[in-house]
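Loading example: each entry is read as four labelled lines plus one structure line.
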Amino acid sequence: MERKRYSKYNRLLVALAALIIVLILPYVFSGYILQIAVYAYIYILLASSLNLLIGYAGIFSMGHVGFYCVGAYTSALLATKLDMPFVICFFAAGLLAALAGAFVGFVALRLNDIFFAFATMGLSEVIRIVIQNSDFTNGTLGVTGIPLPEWFGRSMNREEFYYLVVVIVVIVVVLISKLAKSHTGRTLAMIRDDQNAAASLGVNIFKYKMMVMVLSCFIAGLAGSLYATFIQYINASNFGITVSINIIAMVAIGGMGTVSGPVIGAILLQLLPEYIRFLSNFRQIIYGAAIVISIMFAPKGLVGIRWRRIKLIDQLCCLFETKLNNEES
Amino acid sequence: MTMFFQQLVNGITQGGLYALLAIAYSLVYGVMGLVNFSTGSIYMLGAMSSWLVCKYIIESFWLSVLISFGVGFVVAFVLEKIAFSAIRGATRIASLICTIGFSQFINEAVALIFGKATQGMSTFFDQELFAFLGVHISVMQAVLVVTVIIILVALQFFVYRTRIGLAIRTVSMDEKTAGLMGINVNRTISIAFSLSGACAAIAGLMGAVYYRSFSAYMGWMPGIKSFSAAVFGGLSSMPGAILGGYLMGIIENFGVQVFSTGYRDVISFIVMIVFLLVRPQGILGSKKKVKL
Amino acid sequence: MKKVFMFLMVVVLLFSIAACGEKTSSGSKDKIRIALTAPLTGNQAKYGESFKNTVSLACKQWNDKGGVLGRELELVINDSAGDSAQAASVAQKVVSDSSIFAQVGDFSAPCSMAAQPIYDAAKMIQIAPTCSAVTFARGSKWSFQIVGNQVLQGRFMAQWMFDEGVRKVAMLYLNNDWGVSVKDYVGDIFKELGGEVVLQEPYSDGETDFSAALTKARDANPDALFIASYYNDGAAICIQRANLGWEIPVYNPGTVYSPEFLEIGGSAVEGVLTNVGFFPDDPGPAAATFVEEYKNLYKSDPDYYGACAYDAFNVLVEAIKRAGELDNEKVREEIAATDYEGVTGNITFDENGDALKTYIKIIVKDGKFTAYR
Amino acid sequence: MSKEIVKLDDVCVCYGAIRALQGVSLSVEEGAIVALIGSNGAGKTTLLNALSGLVPVQSGHIFLRGEEITNEKPHIIAQRRIAHVPEGRKIFSELTVEENLRIGAYTQYKNKAKIEQLLHMNFELFPILAERRKQMGGSLSGGEQQMLAIARGLMSEPDIILLDEPSLGIAPIMVEHIFEFIRQINASGKTIILVEQNANLALETASYVYVLETGRIVNENTSDVLIHDDTIQKVYLGL
């Protein structure tokens, strides 16, 4: 009983601390940190949406960047060519990406995991190459001059946009965690663990897979829209397979099939190279090695590691807990 | 007409490289039902080792072949121990992600050591040409085509006429029953995997010689395209993979003629996707063995 | 829960360390701080390195002379990794550091253009030495570039080919922002002159096999082949052209000018025609000292891109000197009014901020770049 | 009293949370036909799989001629002259009959003469296979496939043959034939461990019978005794 109350208190404290950090960030730190933080948040969206596929439904997509790209281009083109307001661009990006996801899912979800991975990778490259060669999307020159959203009759500044991104990320992550705990989430887990068993229980596997695919692509599209709006200039070369691999790394390192895993993975992989800039030459190597190591030694990612087993960390935690307890009493 | 034959020659030369890589995929898929995503990286390592040999030791084509073979074999052996043996029982997705990580690691490590820029490779053969009715075939192309064919024939001999080859075929048909026949399944898988690495590395060497350059990311596209080629011809059948490799090379070259080089990569991806959807077992593969 | 808590602590730690690193970098106020952004890592690291070398050299030379406005110059070097997202975040870092006055960089057009809106909003001068995209300099009042834009260079190349008697040209181009605009400008001007473009064939970045495209080009029966490629693709194209036994003049807009091109291409690149704004073997008076000092310092030849960065820095500092104070409006005016004899030739700017440049024709002869005729 | 060749001592096997074998002990004498009977899921196949190394044993020991072989790899056990003819026959359907047999002789690969001799012997024993030697394994009838599977097992010159449900899915007339062959093989001095759902057939053929139920041995005796056992008659023989 005591334990439970304590944990609840702790959880509140954590949420509060997180909120404060996130909210004061633009005021304490410079625009540079803000920029990085927004990238990290966008990657949280991407990693969480990919995690829906890999972690919850056992669908391995290697072409997630394709949907991100569709979202970014939809939003950018609507904003620059048709002067649409941000809200429309934003949701249109999600919808179009979801549509693309539905199409890809419809044709490719029948394949087994490995073939699906390669098919999606191929499709994402096809999307990129078509965009690169099409005049409508401005070809290789990219789309320039994408405006920040407007409100109260003026365009947002970067700090305000930062808060907008924060709100969106929080909503998406909370919804994902709700989904994971719901009946649907449990059904997906069953499909992931044993497709045949799920089928024998009368689960319409294709329907569920399709649903999660569409949802995941919708989120990736939203992330694309945020990216395009924030960076104000996009180019098809930003959407290569490397991005897919980075997202996969985030999910694998953070922890597949958990809500916090991709969030942690995204923040860590975005921030780490920033403050160890002298290591930036090693950035991609570290990604590669981290994937291999985490799959081998921590298949559940950082979230799944029992940190308390490591003596030093355990001692630190104990120290911290006694202090907290003292304050409480 | 000249153009037609010239594109055919180009396609066959390039197709040879794809065929070797496709075999590499097919060997691994056969014994494990899995795909080694880092095949392209091993291709690059093969190119790298021959580049090193030529730069620092001696400019010898055949020595390069030998060294590339060895490097590919050893790297793939180690990879199998890491990504597959060590985590056997983990999901197939985990293994695939592991090979992606490995591939990333190899590419970037090489990029760090030797730079990301393209490096020149020595010329082994004169550019003497056989010009026949306006169709030009360089000595290098000829050597390349012949070498690839020799390797493919040797491989077929190995798989169909030797004891280890018999074990590989048996394991790829039924792993469990193979064990009951007294076949060491793990060792067989390991050998097939290493052999696949050796094939990929030799393809890399050929690529480096043909294009006379080596760079850290050179394995990326051939790696993916030859997977498409393997799917096209039949991932579960070695002759299928070879056929797929050659056909893919030829289709790509004619595709360039008809469309444009900018869409070259799209061609192979679309062929792969169409085949995955319509005929996942490929041209020569049998339906039963493709685990869908 | 403790896990989450600990994780949050780690995040706070990360942010703070990142922030600290940033804070400590702000130096003393009495120096004039100028940012250099270049791809020090990533695919274009080679060019970034060259930027860093030449600009450091220029900075050192100014400081040896006692700086400018009586104050010493200080470089703040940033890495954009050749990635436009990173370039934008670096730009954000630069503009939020109030001690930095102006910025030189980036190397590639996507990076320079991704950073542009940020510098524009902060009213910071951005001189991108090698961004030849036509849309760049006219995109912002605060943007300048040194290398000369593609309209100019396109005209030069098209005229050259036409003068050599080429009437039908086949073009192979790298399918990125740069390659496409080179193709467009060279092609359009060549057509204006009365020539015919028989084939325009794009290829993707990372492509290694050109034999199909070359066979197609040969089939179109042109008088000359124009390749908008960097040195590695350029060399590969030349090699595969030789393998096909196709004898044809090859033109390139200056991008293959690099020792690696000769090394990779070997005998196959013999006779390739290209241009350059700066030529170490045949330097003008300004360039001679630069080449000598560079060689002394870095034991290698400077390349063209580095030379552009060197000029960019000098143009900026000269303008500060003429303006007499660190006022960005005034310095901008002075840059726009530049008439400077740089190592890459005389530099003046048009109303957009594009440098008006002259080019030197060169040819590969006996395995070396030599002046043409 | 003849020599004990296989001995299981308190063997437990689990699949995840399901305990398939719970402390099984048995022994088989050289030259005997021992049958395991029991209903579906009693653990008969698991026992054979544990014996031939296909499934890991959690606790307990398995001995072959007094030497421990617990949790050895399947191929090591196969090399120690145990042939396992698996449930469902598992012949290589895309290879010819002859190729199937040659794979069976994998352990003797180097000894070409020996293989030819073994081939000859098997073709003599199963003339139908000799007729079909160039046909694909998959094109044979169920009974022929079963013969091929047994012949393939014999190709490694085993001392012990593990037969898993040889009568499953085979025409009754063929079943008679196959059991005739099994007796013949036994007569040539090979020990046979037979898993059979058809208890009647098992009791007829075997000299000693173990009865398994939910992973435990619930009864064992010579077939002469068991055939008169009341429970056996009720539960397994349907009398």
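Residues 1-30 of chain A form one domain.
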